[in-house]
Amino acid sequence: MAPLVNEPMADTRDMYMAHAALRREFRLLPGLIRSVQPGDTRRAEVVGAHAALMCAVLHGHHEGEDLLLWPRLVERGGAEAAAVVPTMEEQHHTIENHYAQATRLLGGWRSTGRGGEALADAFDELTTALEEHMALEEKVILPLAEKHLTAKEWHQLGEHGMEAVPKNVLPLVFGMAMYEGDPEVIKAVLATAPLPVRLLVPVIGRRRYAAHAKRVHGTSTPPRLGA
Questions:
Q1: pLDDT given at position 1
Q2: What backbone phi and psi angles, to 5 degrees, belong to 150?
Q3: CA 54 from chain center: how many Å?
Q4: What is the pLDDT of residue 197?
Q5: Cα–Cα distance for residue pair 47/146, rounded to 1 Å
Q6: Which of 9, 57, 82, 153 has the fewest CB atoms in 10 Å of its CB?
């Protein structure tokens, strides 16, 4: 079903913010894993818990696209969408295979601190596939979404991603995205939330991410993409 004529259309700027967080954290993960001394189960658990969180965020993000984005673009986007959506779906399949390999290795490494090199290699492969996918999505898919999805439908996509993350870590995940986010985009994302949420989430999110980054990365200000 096509959007109604006068409905506001999707503002996809939040996707760039989400992608920045995914790029940063997945780029840093292989190095974090390799920095853990074999047998150091305490440090392996800290880094491993972070890796598991990032995998959950990624999985929910892509599941939402599979369910709510690709079908609408194919239905409404004509030849332009038909030319690229199959590639995006194929890339999701490739990423899912790398994701499955990484998560298979992750549990054992978290509990033993052994097998870190193989795990880091798996995250290297996952990150490479993810970077290729996000670059194409930003170049082709997001402009299509702005033309063919309503703001309400785009918001549903974000809601689905949040549902994949336990509620107690949502402020952390939002803080992770805000770390390199445009203040205007952050304001737009929170625009429909109740006033207490608009006031508190940015403060709590930044604090949660700073503490998390200190624990995982050794600094509350890990390297930014543009740094």
A1: 53
A2: -80, 165
A3: 7
A4: 82
A5: 37
A6: 82
